[in-house]
Write a structure and sequence with these properties.
The structure holds two protein chains of two kinds. By secondary structure, chain A is mostly helical. Chain A has a three-stranded antiparallel β-sheet. Chain A has twelve helices and three strands. In chain A, helix 4 (100-112) crosses helix 12 (286-314), helix 5 packs across helix 6 (156-169) and helix 5 (123-154) packs parallel to helix 8. Chain A has helices at residues 3-9, 18-41, 69-82, 100-112, 123-154, 156-169, 178-185, 189-213, 217-225, 230-264, 272-282, 286-314; strands at residues 49-54, 66-68, 88-92. The longest helix of chain A has 35 residues, at 230-264. Chain B is an alpha/beta fold. Chain B is 33% helix and 22% strand. Chain B has helices at residues 15-24, 73-81, 120-130, 135-148, 164-177, 194-210, 222-228, 262-275, 281-286; strands at residues 29-42, 45-58, 62-66, 88-93, 96-97, 105-108, 182-186, 214-218, 231-236, 241-247. In chain B, strands 6-7-8-3-9-10 form a six-stranded mixed β-sheet, sandwiched between helices. In chain B, strands 2-1-4-5 form a four-stranded antiparallel β-sheet, covered by helices on one side. In chain B, strand 1 (29-42) and strand 2 form a beta hairpin. In chain B, helix 4 packs across helix 5 (164-177). The radius of gyration of chain B is 22 Å and the shape is globular. The chains are: A mainly alpha, B alpha/beta. The interface between A and B is medium-sized, with 25 and 30 residues.
Chain lengths: 324, 305
């Protein structure tokens, strides 16, 4: 690579040209996929197992069995000496690493496969259940947490009153309250929502109060010289002033809420996408496990992209990056 | 030194100017500052930012405050605006003591303090709505003020779409819309480039001529102070005290070609003496660069002179 093109691709804190930027975005997903495909489809890369296609004269080998390649070699060597039929097999990866095409198929079949028992849910029902738990946990937390955070960021009184306790409480791991939540709220969705709430709320108060504090103090002073009273300072300056940053915080916090979902769904009656994942892992359907994990990723990323696009429409004054 | 201009004394005023100052001082008093003092408690001990400041401004007078850095000019204007409270003394506006910030003292800050989430129109309407005007009358007033600062085309623009000079014009319109009794300006053009600054100065002069407003303007730019002010309050630092209240002998109304007039230069010379006094020897010796000649042996230019 010539010096000039090096500086073009790796210029410090310079944006790449639009085409290259797009290419990089594609690559960011393509590179992991290519690595995954290489490991899955190139026989001499990794492949620590051997899938038996013909057991030969090894008594305990069965067709379709996965054995360590060391073991396979050892048994083959033993048989070679005795002139019996050698086992035949192809290099394979462990069961927990399905190939991309298997996961792709599972992506579709997971939705079309009927649940094994009557009481169990279809995948789309599980997913919908998870989304509802996240939604309610996050909304309830925000209804309480955002106002408290704004108050704490605006008035020292509330900061002193709330923040020490919140600081203490946020170190208590939300899952620790699982048993308690079940005891109080039963085994269905309520304790799960409670876990999401506990996981989100305390971080939320601190993050929001911090964001509120970052509002340019000179805006408050300007408003005061224009005759704004205490209430107007809060409602007409602080709140609109922090909205875009608050919105960004909420997007990040929503991501955190997803991480608590996995714990929440293991509490009480297992349900939702987590239940689906653990169940499929138990059946060793790792293609389904991978598909389900990716669904969470896709759901999360899509929500965030939609929220980001929405944010641009809601806050037209935030389009600073383009021009100035 | 050769070729130095022979300048008159900055105190010399022609009859017209003297007459104007006599009439000016007969106007009612707009702002009176009485033995104002401000100290800050810092970890290093008590720091006196302002000490025994006394001065008056008259109705529709344009006063500039100037001084070296650390003289407390910003503290002074913040106290006048009510954003900070004095340790001693008081501030009277039209004879009444002021406490806390209020719409009777409009303020324009150096940093553009326009609300980024409001359009130009809504920014100017902010104070009017706070004062209890109806939305319609506030909007009508706002349009007039925006028109006055020549930004009619930008009523619905957001601040980030405006240039620095335009932002400050909106800030001025926003402050004036409240019809304050005094306009406090804290180095409002400090962040603008030289050309925009000149333009803004003449805009401000035009506004001041046409509107019933007293202006107190802080700056560290000597030319700006002389060009704009009726009188210049010169502060000195550590502690901030009034050094002199200069009556600017340059005739009103002002225009850019007066920048080189003898009166202007005389006043500037006086300000230079006050703000950058010839320092005593030891100070200069303790703070200088260790310059040695560092040109290559085969350099092509013998001397820069």
């Amino acid at each position: 690579m010539s010096a000039r093109s090096t500086t073009r691709w790796f210029a410090v804190r310079r944006e790449l040209p639009p085409k290259t930027r797009f290419l990089m975005t594609i690559m960011s997903f393509l590179v992991p996929l290519i690595l995954w495909s290489l490991i899955s489809y190139v026989p001499w890369l990794w492949h620590p197992k051997v899938e038996i296609s013909d057991p030969g004269d090894v008594s305990y080998f069965k067709q379709g069995m996965l054995v360590d390649s060391d073991l396979f070699d050892k048994e083959s060597l033993k048989l070679e000496a005795t002139d019996k039929t050698l086992p035949v097999g192809t290099p394979a990866n462990p069961i927990y690493l399905p190939a991309p095409h298997e996961v792709a198929v599972a992506f579709y079949t997971a939705f079309t496969t009927e649940p094994k028992r009557r009481s169990e849910m279809w995948l789309h029902e599980s997913l919908w259940n998870s989304i509802q738990v996240i939604f309610w946990g996050f909304v309830l937390s925000s209804i309480v947490g955002v106002p408290l955070g704004v108050m704490a960021g605006t008035y020292d009184f509330f900061a002193r009153l709330f923040e020490p306790f919140v600081e203490f409480f946020r170190y208590l791991p939300a899952p620790a309250f699982g048993a308690l939540a079940v005891a109080i709220m039963g085994i269905h969705d309520a304790p799960k929502i409670a876990i999401i709430f506990i996981g989100t709320f305390f971080q939320q108060v601190l993050v929001v109060s911090n964001t509120t504090r970052k509002l340019d103090a000179s805006l408050l002073e300007a408003a005061q010289t224009l005759g704004a009273n205490n209430k107007a300072l809060l409602l007409k300056v602080v709140v609109p002033g922090i909205l875009p940053d608050l919105y960004r915080d909420m997007r990040i916090l929503l991501g955190w809420a997803w991480t608590y979902l996995i714990v929440a769904e293991l509490i009480g009656a297992s349900s939702g996408i987590t239940w689906f994942i653990t169940q499929q892992a138990r059946y060793k359907n790792f293609d389904n496990v991978f598909a389900a994990i990716m669904m969470i990723g896709i759901l999360g990323l899509t929500t965030d992209l939609i929220l980001a696009a929405l944010g641009k429409r809601i806050f037209p004054w935030e389009r600073q990056t383009a021009g100035a | 030194m050769k070729h130095m201009l022979e300048l008159p004394s900055y105190l010399d005023q022609d009859d017209e100017v003297r007459d104007r100052f006599t009439r000016l001082k007969q106007r009612p008093i707009a702002l009176e500052v009485k033995s104002l003092g401000k100290t800050f408690d810092t970890p290093g001990g008590v720091v006196t930012a302002l000490k025994d400041i006394n001065f008056k401004t008259f109705k529709r007078e344009f006063v500039c405050v100037i001084g070296p850095s650390g003289c407390g000019k910003s503290t002074l204007i913040r106290i006048l605006a009510g954003l900070e409270s004095p340790t001693s003394g008081e501030v009277l506006l039209d004879g009444a003591a002021v406490h806390g910030p209020g719409p009777d003292r409009g303020m324009v800050f150096q940093g553009y303090t326009l609300f980024p989430w409001l359009t130009v129109k809504r920014n100017v309407m902010f104070g009017l709505l706070q004062a209890g005007h109806s939305r319609e009358s506030a909007e009508e007033d706002a349009r007039q003020w925006i028109d006055l600062v020549g930004l009619t085309k930008f009523v619905d623009s957001y601040p980030h779409q405006l240039s620095g000079g335009m932002k400050q014009r909106v800030a001025i319109a926003r402050a004036l819309a409240n019809q304050p009794r005094i306009l406090l300006m804290d180095e409002p053009f400090g962040a603008l480039d030289a050309q925009t600054r000149l333009k803004m100065q003449s805009y401000l002069m035009d506004i001041w001529k046409n509107i019933d407003i007293t202006v107190l303007f802080i700056t560290h730019d000597l030319d700006e102070a002389i060009y704009l002010a009726d009188r210049i309050l010169v502060l000195k630092a550590h502690p901030g005290e009034v050094q002199e209240l200069i009556e600017v002998s340059v005739p009103q109304p002002r225009s850019p070609d007066q920048l080189l007039s003898p009166e202007f230069l005389a006043t500037k010379k006086r300000l230079e003496e006050l703000i950058h006094p010839p320092e005593e020897g030891d100070d200069i010796n303790s703070d200088h660069m260790n310059m040695v000649r560092m040109v290559p042996v085969d350099h092509e230019v013998e001397s820069v002179f």
